[in-house]
Design goal:
The complex is a heterodimer of chains A (482) and B (443). Chain A has 482 residues and is of the alpha/beta class. Chain A has 18 helices and twelve strands. In chain A, strands 1-7-6-5-4-2-3 form a seven-stranded mixed beta sheet, with helices on both faces. A three-stranded antiparallel beta sheet of chain A has the order 10-12-11, with helices on one face. Chain A has a two-stranded antiparallel ribbon with strand order 8-9. In chain A, a hairpin with an 8-residue loop joins strand 11 and strand 12. Chain A starts with 5 loop residues before the first helix and ends in a 9-residue tail after the last helix. The mean pLDDT of chain A is 97. Chain B is α/β, with parallel strands linked by helices. Chain B has two domains: 107 residues, Aspartate Aminotransferase, domain 1 (Alpha-Beta Complex), CATH 3.90.1150; 264 residues, Aspartate Aminotransferase, domain 2, CATH 3.40.640. Chain B is globular, with a radius of gyration of 25 Å. Classes of the chains: A alpha/beta (482), B alpha/beta (443). At the A-B interface, helix 3, helix 4, helix 5, helix 6 and helix 7 of A face helix 1, helix 2, helix 3, helix 4 and helix 5 of B.
């Protein structure tokens, strides 16, 4: 397929749109604005509508989504995105509403948001949720700001945040943005938090621990009770990175486990699509002692009437304009209403079943650093392939492309060398899992017999491996006419 | 209704392969005392038909007015049909961030084209793949300047959208940063002498917005020199992206960073989100700006391709040293904006002109009413502030006629009591404007 840019298809005079005739008296633009404030030209491409549509449809054909095939991208929960969610989110009553419409004209929206918050409180065992953050990392930042405010109000100066070595990169980045020094906690031999190290690091200078549970190895923190006690005994707060919530819904609740703050990723756990990287939604739930610090506005219900409440003087303030990614909330709400309590629990059970099935099927062929029952994902290492034939995890991932699968997350978590992190999700069938495992086994065999094949993969994609060094050394992030 | 695929027989077969006897055995790492003893207390599961009926009914509990006169950061524009068709391609909307470039060329090329269009429209050298929204984009730009300059004061015009200013304050608070707010003059434009006075060697950035919250177009060029003389960065924001069709790009007036809200580019109002944070900069910030960047490169056969690049800026590589923690962005909204801009093409200019004509006509007709006057004398695009006898009464009367009135700006600017911030876009017809005037006349 050709990959001409839209600019290269542009021909002066072509149009893909039309503007209504002006039905009011026109003003003299030079008088109204002034020449010095006006632009000379609109530098946009000129194409016909059919060119536009073919351009983007052909681009879409060079893109891989969940609707095309298996997408076992660890930590990203690429489950099937039910179509009814999309339809509901596009209802005109939702899409047409201005954010500053009077509350009485927005009762449907406010009810939906209120009920979504209530459902999340129940599912995660928290006292209150805010839906304002636009994505998981945005939720993290909000959650850490709430923790910071809590200590500020108590008059305590704490400067450090504990973060396990297996954590997502967003955790230390969010902490640093809140002015905290990120201190790394080691993992122990079985993939959990090293309790002794945690005890050593936890002092009254420490805000708390940002723990992903199950962690990025897909393992549940067995010592969660001890972890929570160590943090709380020193007056700290326990933060849960909720990216991996698909592992326990309906089985246990972070609030019951001792977590004080959690951020969710509705675009992972609650089936809203990722849209090539967004929009997401990152609600934050807190223990009752932190409720006052959540962002404003908050949604309240009096009788049957819903409204926005701005009167929380100790709130951290606002983390974005308006109220959050409403359209994403509609999808998550629809999903929760479809599944109910039983459905959420069985989603979790099947997600964990699928991950363990892959773990067991692939264990003979790839190194499994932590030989335990896993939760919603399993993490292998490509070290055996590196040692035996010089084939790296990247080569394995690229070879998977030739077989029509999206590769797992690779080289993460950082504590596993040549990591291959597989999260199948609950919506994949046994046949799909078997087909994927067969290909992974075949690739392990290819690695031994024909390593060059893997070094050269992929062979069948629209482009071959791209030169990322050149991309970074001579950045070309904007097209210019030669 | 659930979306599982396994039959009971499948489950049994899989449990056997794993070597456990029941699903419960898969959760042995969770201490028993913390396992839920009962089902979650949630509303009962519904069939697809029931959900459809229920959620549709909920959407109808909202009321869509027949006319919207409010802008204030979210604008009612026509969305060309092509936009919805392209973003409904599930190859796009069900994909993740394009980490695997070889099977993500579609979105990577679309991002590259979007970056190019935004850079060109704003007059900047670089634009990223998107931020959450205009407010957080402005806040991250401020943090970027504070962190890279190691100065801890920012100067922010009070004529910036109030919710943007609140967001900036939330973000910079953790950097022990002083925020000096600058008032506005009778033209509705920032007060140049106040900025001059506030500027010092400790200032990281000056933040302004144009058109500003009052709809007034700022004279960016008037402060460019004094800002840069002190080694300070100039951050220029906007909330109404269609204004780019007519206004001189901020990049041509010395902006170091341009941040704004892209909702007007083909994204529905949707009660405030998801929207599109635009962030563009000069080359100086290329290796420091937050967010994803798609770059052109070559594959091993010499064919042009696209890849996420300069990732050393980002949190997953740099962790606590990253300038931002952003990971997910608003990619699908970016795609909508890209399609919108390709669809509009050169028509972005006549569209912007149409907005300007409608707004000026609405303003003119309202000015003819007794007790109504235009508050600010500065040039404006499609929004303006009017003082009237009783702003609340006007909005109530309009509401009775199924019209969402103006934004009661006195709520956030006490000095603008009984003033309405009004907006007219291409969606408003002449007869609508006459109807609005008639309704107000009868109060």
């Amino acid at each position: 397929m050709p990959n001409e840019l839209i600019f290269e298809k542009s021909r002066p005079g072509r149009k893909a749109s039309s503007i209504p005739a002006c039905d009011v008296p026109v003003v003299n633009l030079k008088e109204a604005i002034g020449d010095h404030l006006m632009r000379k030209d609109v530098p946009l491409p000129e194409v016909a509508e059919v060119d536009l549509i073919r351009h983007y449809v052909n681009l879409s054909r060079k893109n891989f989504g969940v609707d095309i095939g298996f997408y076992p991208l660890g930590s990203c929960t690429m489950k099937y995105n039910p179509k009814i969610n999309e339809d509901m989110s596009r209802l005109p009553g939702f899409t047409g509403l201005h954010p500053y419409v009077s509350e009485k004209w927005a009762q449907g929206n406010l009810q939906l948001m209120y009920e979504l918050e209530q459902s999340l409180c129940e599912i995660f065992g928290m006292a209150q949720f805010t839906l304002q953050p636009a994505a998981g990392a945005h939720g993290e930042l909000t959650g850490v700001m709430v923790m910071r405010k809590y200590f500020e109000m108590k008059g305590e100066k704490r400067t450090k945040m504990l973060i396990p070595d297996a954590a997502h990169g967003t955790n230390p980045a969010s902490s640093a943005l809140c002015g905290f020094e990120a201190v790394t906690v080691r993992s122990n031999a079985e993939g959990g938090v090293d309790i002794d190290h945690l005890r050593e690091l936890m002092t009254e200078e420490v805000v708390g621990l940002m723990l992903t549970n199950p962690n990025t190895l897909g393992l549940f923190e067995r010592n969660i009770e001890a972890v929570a006690k160590i943090i709380h005994d020193k007056g700290g707060l326990l933060y849960c990175d909720g990216a991996n919530s698909n592992a326990y819904m309906g089985i246990t609740r972070p609030g019951d486990l001792g977590f004080d703050v959690i951020q969710l990723n509705l675009h992972k756990t609650f089936s809203t699509p990722h849209g090539c990287g967004g929009p997401g939604s990152g609600p934050v739930g807190v223990h009752k002692k932190l409720v006052d610090y959540l962002p404003i506005p908050r949604i309240i219900k009096k009788g049957d009437v819903f409204s926005m409440d701005y009167n929380y003087p100790h709130s951290i303030g606002r983390v974005k304009a308006f109220y959050g990614n409403f359209n994403v909330m509609v999808k998550a709400y629809t999903y929760i209403r479809a599944l109910g309590a039983e459905g959420l629990k069985s989603a979790t059970e099947n997600a964990v079943l699928n991950a363990n099935y892959i773990r067991v099927k692939l264990e003979p062929y790839y190194d499994l650093p932590y030989k335990r029952i896993c939760m919603h994902e399993c993490v292998f290492s490509g070290s055996r392939q590196v040692n035996e034939s010089g084939v790296h995890t990247l080569d394995i991932a690229k070879r998977l492309l030739d077989y029509g699968f999206h590769p797992p997350t690779i080289y993460f978590p950082l504590i596993v060398s040549e990591a291959i992190m597989i999260e199948p999700t609950e919506t994949e069938s046994l046949e799909t899992l078997d087909a994927f495992c067969e290909v992974m086994i075949k690739i392990a065999k290819e690695a031994k017999e024909d390593p060059e094949l893997l070094h050269n993969a992929p062979l069948t994609t629209p482009v071959r491996r791209l030169d990322d060094v050149m991309a970074a050394r001579q950045p070309n992030v904007r097209w210019t006419k030669e | 209704m659930d979306y599982n695929t396994h039959t009971q027989a499948d489950q049994q077969k899989m449990l056997k392969t794993i070597g456990v006897s029941s699903l419960k055995d898969l959760f042995i790492d969770i201490p028993d005392k913390y396992k839920l003893k009962k089902m979650l207390d949630l509303p009962p599961a519904l069939s697809e038909q029931e959900i459809s009926e229920f959620v549709t009914a909920l959407s109808k509990k909202n009321h869509l007015p027949k006319m919207i006169l409010t802008g204030a950061g979210a604008y009612h524009h026509y969305i060309p049909a092509v936009v919805g068709h392209v973003i409904s391609r599930s190859e796009f909307y069900t994909a993740y961030t394009p980490y695997q470039a070889e099977i993500s060329q579609g979105i990577l090329q679309a991002i590259y084209e979007y970056q190019t269009m935004i850079a060109n429209l704003t007059g900047m050298q670089v634009a990223n793949a998107s931020m959450y929204d205009g407010a957080s984009s402005m806040a991250e730009a401020a943090v970027l300047c504070v962190k890279t300059s190691r100065r801890n004061k920012i100067i922010m015009a009070k004529s910036i959208h109030p919710e943007y200013r609140e967001t900036v304050k939330t973000y910079v608070e953790t950097h022990h940063c002083d925020v000096v707010e600058i008032g506005f003059s009778q033209t509705g434009q920032f007060n140049v002498s106040e900025i001059e006075k506030a500027l010092d060697e400790n200032t990281a950035a000056v933040l302004v917005q144009s058109p500003n919250f009052f709809g007034v177009i700022e004279n960016i060029a008037s402060i460019e020199k004094m800002v840069h003389e002190k080694g300070v960065s100039l951050i220029v924001g906007f909330t109404e992206a269609t204004s780019l069709g007519i206004l001189k790009p901020a990049g041509e007036m010395g902006a170091d960073l341009v941040v704004g809200e892209g909702q007007s580019f083909g994204i529905p109002l949707s009660y405030g989100g998801p929207y599109l944070g635009i962030l563009a900069s000069t080359d100086k910030f290329l290796r420091k700006i937050p967010g994803r960047l798609s770059g052109a490169t070559l594959d091993k056969e010499g064919k042009r391709g696209f890849i996420l690049t300069l990732q050393a800026r980002e949190q997953h590589i740099r962790r606590e040293l990253a300038t931002s923690n952003i990971c997910s962005n608003e990619a699908l909204c970016m795609l909508a904006a890209a399609v919108y801009l390709v669809s509009l093409g050169k028509n972005l200019k006549p569209l912007a002109e149409l907005n300007l004509h409608k707004a000026h006509y609405l303003q003119k007709r309202l000015s003819e009413l007794k007790g109504w006057e235009l508050v600010f004398k500065g040039p404006y695009y499609n929004e303006f502030v009017m003082r009237c006898p009783d702003a609340k009464a006007v909005n109530q009367a309009l509401e009775k006629h199924d019209i969402q009135g103006g934004y009661e700006i006195g709520k956030v600017y006490p000095e603008l009591k009984n003033c309405l911030l009004l907006c007219a876009t291409e969606m408003l017809k002449k007869e609508d404007i006459e109807y609005v005037v008639d309704v107000i006349k009868k109060i």
